[in-house]
Design brief:
By secondary structure, the chain is α/β, with parallel strands linked by helices. The chain has helices at residues 13-20, 81-88, 106-116, 135-142, 158-175, and strands spanning 2-6, 26-31, 50-61, 68-73, 93-98, 120-125, 150-153. The longest helix has 18 residues, at 158-175. It is globular, with a radius of gyration of 16 Å.
């Protein structure tokens, strides 16, 4: 099952994929340079020195071995939209990571996923300096459907990432057409 891990610049997509992958991840992190400063605003994420310029890839086999998840982490900047569209092709769903300190940055990713027609779940990456949140208020602020999974996780911690991925996978499987008996 091909799944996207998406969200705005600096939200923790690379960290999320690395936390879950059972194989060494393929990642295209590059050092940010001075010419990129006006393009990639790091004011809200001090200390960020690298960014994904193409894709993060990881794999996770669920217990029993019947279902293998292929995780494709996307770049978070709009200038990589053509690559994002290529990564979306064939995906069955997406996990949108958000940062409550920069909630407005999430709407572009959500719009892209909705335009692509992909089922999705939203995972709040709990940054240490982020204020506590009320998930019901956040659901309203994001204008999420009641059936859209909304969970919290720490992209550095495997168990929480796994919970987010399970919520997404269940959501995707619930929406797949059921095979009908002949």
């Amino acid at each position: 099952m091909k799944l996207m891990v998406t969200g705005p610049f600096g939200v923790g997509k690379t960290t999320f994929v690395r936390a879950l992958s059972e194989i060494p991840t393929l990642h295209t992190e590059e050092t940010m340079t001075a010419p990129g400063i006006p393009v990639d605003d790091t004011t809200a994420i001090p200390g960020k020195t690298s960014t994904t310029v193409a894709v993060d890839f990881g794999r996770l086999t669920l217990p029993g071995g019947d279902l293998v998840l292929y995780l494709f982490g996307t770049p978070g900047q709009r200038r990589f939209l053509p690559l994002w569209e290529d990564l979306a092709r064939g995906a069955l769903g997406a996990l949108i990571l958000i940062d409550t300190r920069r909630l407005a940055d999430s709407f572009d990713s959500m719009d892209l996923i909705e335009e692509a027609g992909l089922p999705y779940a939203v995972a709040v990456n709990r940054f240490p300096d982020a204020p506590p949140i009320d998930l019901d208020k956040l659901r309203a602020a994001l204008d999420l459907a009641p059936t859209t999974p909304l969970i919290e996780c720490d992209a550095r911690v495997r168990d929480g990432c796994l919970d987010a991925l399970i919520a997404l996978t269940e959501h995707v499987l619930d929406r797949l057409p059921q095979e009908t008996a002949p």
